[in-house]
Amino acid sequence: MKAAVYYGPADVRIEDVREPEPPGPAEVVIQVKMGSLCGTDASQYKAATMVPLDGPHRVSGHSGPVILGHEVVGVVVARGSEVIHLEIGQRVVPGAGWWCGECPRCKEGRINICENYYLYGIHANGGLAEFARFPAQMSMPVPPECSDEAAAMAQPCAVALHALARGRIAIDQTVALFGVGSIGNLLLAALQAQAAGGQQVIAIDVEQSRLATARRLGAFSQIDARADDPVAAIGELTGGRGVDVAIDATGVPETIAQALASVCRGGRLLQVGIPVAPVRLVLDTAIVQEKDIVTTNGQICSIDLPNALELLSTTDLAQRINYRVISLDALVEEGLVPLVEHRATAKVVVAI
């Protein structure tokens, strides 16, 4: 079968590999229809900071080149003997990562921060291939009304919904969204879908095309961080008060500091982007003004993924998100490279 195999930084090959082994008792094999790319794929194309190329991963046991892909949709073509909730021929979206179910966090229901968590497409073979094998427990049925293109975005949409739930954003609160790239767009679209378009959102980015998309998705004001000081501009827009909630979707240290500075007294910073370097924050003001810093990671498969599929099936969120479809053969030239070079202006969806 054809697959996208990661060999190292700037070395992803579309090549023929063996089809996956038959499913274990609690697994399914799916014929993949579509997938999508995210910032994690791009980061690993730049540097192998997560892929276990030189030794086995401590949980998955995988070592060496890995099939990419943790945002996919496909059709069940084989199932294990213990799988009774999924049918052959049924469309499913697998979650991105597996959890142990035994550690303290798993027993609290916080499987996304499991002590033994690992990611498919990074720590084990993923789904950017004609066929892929996944645990049935984390494979969620796709409603008939949901298109393949929309379903391919369900995993990142679930991440956005989990983040927004962690952020506890009320409809009457003003939000500053720093970074309106791939995940930022989904955060904005999901936020407006949940609020029926009524959320007051200020979008901040350094790319005019992204700001234009944010305007189309319902941001009432857009700030070009290359031309204006975002903190000062937000102050002017809010009468010097600041925003109730700032969301950082960039992971850029300087931007995270700006996001915290833009929050009002008693407000909240929701940190979605994973910092690329150590972050220096002015905490004395944050402490005196009782600003909260809330972090978020991934999604809870049994909650956030079905919610994402429901949202994508019952709203026009997928149509409003700017995406483009490429072939698996064009993955590197038209997908990964533009993402790494910050030239991608739309979510990249891959037809298998």
Overview of this protein structure:
It is a single chain. With 352 residues, this protein is of the alpha/beta class. It folds into two domains: 2-152 and 321-351, Quinone Oxidoreductase, Chain A, domain 1 (Alpha-Beta Complex), CATH 3.90.180.10; 158-295, Rossmann fold. It is built from twelve helices and 18 strands. The longest helix is centred in the middle third of the chain and has 14 residues, at 154-167.
Structure keywords:
352 residues; alpha/beta; Quinone Oxidoreductase, Chain A, domain 1; Rossmann fold; 2 domains; 12 helices; 18 strands; 29% helix; globular
What is the tally of helical segments? 12
What percent of residues adopt helix (DSSP H or I)?
A: 25-40%
Mean pLDDT value: 95
Which spans have pLDDT < 50 for at least 5 consecutive residues?
none
Choose one word for the global shape: globular
- Determine Rg (CA atoms, Å): 20 Å
List the helices and strands and how they pair.
Elements: E1 2-8, E2 11-16, E3 27-36, H1 39-46, E4 66-67, E5 72-79, E6 91-94, E7 97-98, H2 104-107, E8 118-119, E9 131-135, E10 139-141, H3 148-151, H4 154-167, E11 174-178, H5 182-194, E12 200-205, H6 208-216, E13 221-224, H7 230-237, E14 243-248, H8 253-261, E15 263-271, H9 283-288, E16 292-295, H10 301-314, H11 317-320, E17 323-327, H12 331-340, E18 347-351
Parallel strand pairs: 11-12, 11-14, 12-13, 14-15, 15-16, 17-18
Antiparallel strand pairs: 1-2, 1-4, 3-5, 3-9, 3-18, 5-6, 6-10, 7-8
